[in-house]
């Protein structure tokens, strides 16, 4: 992974947002920070992952959509006769509040028959998502914040690490942002090249999307609201409620995609100590490689 340039605003956030705990601890080393990274996917099994595909019960891996091959998590549709709006998500079975999520992904092959035009070379990392156990059988997307992953079509500009908001809203430029999607400032990645994407999420306060070390999108105050999600339980969708934590999932939207790395640095232990949070973010920002 290239140098991870965490936004300067995050450093200021760490200094000013929290009340200082006053605890004095030993300095954190770069080596200690490296050891705190968690590999959510071990390349061998789907232990600690839950699958939810629209029109199917929880944990039914319809048509072998999600599979493990060559040490990678792959999303495939060769056993589908027709995609038929069967949007799927594979959830890590633990809720997180503050973290840095690191993904390495690539789009491959051809779109599934019946996939919608907008879903060409389209997937996503769903952040602060609802518990998959609360999703309806026919629900198409979890209520969540989506870091939308897009591949280029070989000709046109098409940014990645965009924002989409199934059942949610965010604040941008000091105002509530209610459209469904907004583009990032990333470059376009054509073909089947690997792309590094990071998502820095600090509770219900601030989220940054980072592509190949560059911050491409920032927004604030993720909250439940808006549309673009169907067949949900109304008791789960409490519009206006800030989202402090949630589940992470990866999408199946009709185009094959590979994930070779799914890793997370849990920042929650540092969120009540501004000095330690600042220190950890500084080390993350300075490191040159990801182990």
Structure report:
The protein is mainly beta. The protein has helices spanning 8-16, 30-35, 274-286; strands at residues 37-39, 49-53, 66-69, 72-75, 88-96, 98-107, 122-129, 145-150, 162-164, 168-172, 175-177, 181-182, 195-202, 206-211, 214-224, 246-252, 257-266. It starts with 7 loop residues before the first helix and ends in a 5-residue tail after the last helix.
Main pleated-sheet profile: 10 strands, antiparallel
Helix content: under 10%
- Order of SSEs: HHEEEEEEEEEEEEEEEEEH
How far is the N terminus from the C terminus?
9 Å
Number of helical segments? 3
List keywords for this structure.
seven-stranded antiparallel beta sheet, ten-stranded antiparallel beta sheet, 36% strand, mainly beta, 291 residues
What does the secondary structure layout of this molecule look like, with pairings?
Elements: H1 8-16, H2 30-35, E1 37-39, E2 49-53, E3 66-69, E4 72-75, E5 88-96, E6 98-107, E7 122-129, E8 145-150, E9 162-164, E10 168-172, E11 175-177, E12 181-182, E13 195-202, E14 206-211, E15 214-224, E16 246-252, E17 257-266, H3 274-286
Antiparallel strand pairs: 1-17, 2-5, 3-4, 4-17, 5-16, 6-13, 6-17, 7-8, 7-16, 8-9, 9-12, 10-11, 10-15, 13-14, 14-15
Short characterization:
It is built from 3 helices and 17 strands.
